[in-house]
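Notes to self after the Tuesday call (sharing in case useful).
The group wants a holo model before anyone commits to mutagenesis around the pocket. I volunteered. Ligand is pyridoxal-5'-phosphate. Logging inputs and output together so the record is complete.
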Amino acid sequence: MAKINENYLKLKAGYLFPEISKRVKLFTESNPGKKVIRLGIGDVTLPLPPSIVNAMKLASEEMGTSSGFKGYGPEQGYSFLIEEIIKNDYKPLGVSLSQDEIFVSDGSKCDTGNIQEIFSIDSKIAVTDPVYPVYVDTNVMAGRTGESTLDGRYSGLVYLPCTKENGFQPDFPKEKVDLIYLCYPNNPTGTTITKSRLKEWVEYAKKNNSIILYDAAYEAFISDPNVPRSIFEIEGAKEVAMEFRSFSKTAGFTGTRCAFIVIPKELNGITSNGDKVSINQLWNRRHTTKFNGVSYPIQKAAAACYSDSGKKEVRDNILYYMENAKIIREGISKNGYEVYGGVNAPYIWLKTPKSMTSWDFFDQLLNKIQVVGTPGSGFGPSGEGYFRLSAFGKREDVIEAVSKIGSLSF
Ligand SMILES: *Cc1c(COP(=O)(O)O)cnc(C)c1O
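Result:
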């Protein structure tokens, strides 16, 4: 028989979202007809805006004509989309990029999951705790982490706890690390990073020859002008960081699929002989070998997010979600909950009452008021005692959930 990659067996069995589904299913089976409000999984709910749908339609029709048909496109993305990204997402921040520093893809989950392939198997990896599980699990699969320990950590990873005690601002790693995954605005805590702290991270990375993998999937939800939208707003960041962005949460593309990575030419890695290698070139080689580009109609749809009407429609959807976030945040803090996030991100991170565990609180909400959220401990050991509510629901569900949470006493 063929031997398998045994690193996969090191993955933790009770993965978060299947476990949530299992418990919800169990409840609905024994309580048929009871309405369950889901503020759990981080998926958008509003339909695609009309300008985007229209662009997708036109591009599909174009594909059905002999003059407009397109086969394989450039693996890195069409320049009509890359130009819009540079012009609208980066130029206003004072960040200049060339077209070949951007790689369009079918999602940031794939990008943040695949990027580890171009780094040495010996790389020391730091992640924040709690964390978006993709960063951890893909390094487990690759064999970089060792076994998981009793407290749920992997022995080979460096964890940077983010708790209310440190204001959800992780300390720098105490040991030397090669790669640091940072996500701001953060999933799951909904918190942000200040420009001065981000500057310290860039300085840290420079001093320690580390690379920062900066996931900015929630950049569009920032409303505070002082919160950095891109790591490249920080001087010198191009030498130590790459940035991941996605149309998923920004424009409702979770089912449509389009994202990109920015890898500056200044970013280098090193061989065991001490030779510098361009990370941009290495990723280009990897991307063009394993990926054949996002489909033309979808890239046209993504480009439509930058048209005048597209921008307005996308913004309106974000404002809708952020109004939800405000309703949740204000509503439940009035009821005595300690809440974090939800101001520049679509997630509210709350402290469970009476030091309840995250899963106990989950069960109470499900069984007593039929509201589903996400247990913080599912994102890492430091998430224990916390709970995530998502602002991506429908308004009426959000209002109902908040009032039901208010009716609970512990
Ligand atoms: C949703 C999300 C993404 C985006 O994933 P896609 O594959 O682009 O849909 C990336 N990073 C984080 C932290 C997310 O929550």
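Two things stood out.
The first strand starts at residue 37 and ends at 38.
The chain has a mean pLDDT of 96.
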